């Protein structure tokens, strides 16, 4: 992907091609200022001001390239992150500026629209960078950082499991820690068995090079408010002995999407210098099948001391998160946020675009919902319904890892995690898809950061 710092530049009066933004309601009035040939050009291109429409209009009467661009938007006075993204996708390489206003939030989508994943195949249709100028210089660093974090999620999720195993996730975290001078530590393989038994059990069947591990990083002043970010890092999920069908495995390279979100959020916190003591925890495993796979019916010990009966080996993400959340809680953070591609039930309920959000406190949910709505990263709260805890009862252990019957699957998964978060700790859990099955302007098909900006802007408002 083109470096984001190239795509957004301060406007110092340099040569640039104008872009006019027009709404469908305002198109007729706006078009009256155009010449007959210009209106004819727009008519020939079918441009009416509808959202995401684009057109190129001849402008032979002025110095410059001899044309300007037009983009359709819903409301010219309230731009969104995505309203200029189609322009960024289709315009020729060059330098552009808005003719009558500043792009504001559209700076983000201008960058994300130009993302491409080229690790395994050259993008032969690449046009070169489309650079957008802005007079809002203070916005540049912020939006470049956010777009870079979103690109990190996309890159990691798009990478197949052979090249994004637990060892690669560890390497990404270590690189981030070294860049920002953070403390870094890892517990790997059989060393997990005593202190992190669920992480060990889920990951022990993988090949040695993909051995399970708990990756930790700490950063920031020790006297600052302590927050923990936890991310599910299942590099590939076969389902274990409760094996998935082939169709269910096809996208399971993305089951480490929670770890990618956690890394990206931590990157934003450190790059932007948030005044917190950050504790990042990533339990990362491959849920493989081998002679030593954990089995349905096994009872696992946990870091917290609870026992868990395995009723479904394909409900493994909550197991590894349980040990990590217990560890995070031991240092008494004032807030824990976790990200996980946890349940298909959340996708059935909310579809691919909306992460399910679970919180213990209404105030936490409101902060995240508000931040998501304001920054075009909507999330949807689902109930942490106390009455459903009985669905996780076990006849032989403290609890089961998965409820029978298929009801309230996202809620029962969140209730499982809730048992491992310390009492009175503020906690938010994102059940995110981390994937976009179809492209939208600024949001290509493939790995996706969903819930990342909601969490970041909530943290920035609270601790910035």
From TrEMBL:
Record's Gene Ontology CC terms? Answer: cytoplasm
**Keyword hit for Manganese:** yes
One GO MF annotation is:
metalloaminopeptidase activity
Concerning Pfam families, the annotation shows: Peptidase_M17, Peptidase_M17_N_1
Per UniProt, the keywords (alphabetical) are: Aminopeptidase, Hydrolase, Manganese, Protease
Q: Name one GO biological process term.
A: proteolysis
Record-annotated Cytosol aminopeptidase domain positions: 312-319
Q: Please report which protein family the annotation says this sequence is part of.
A: Belongs to the peptidase M17 family.
Q: Would you tell me the protein name for this molecule? A: Leucyl aminopeptidase
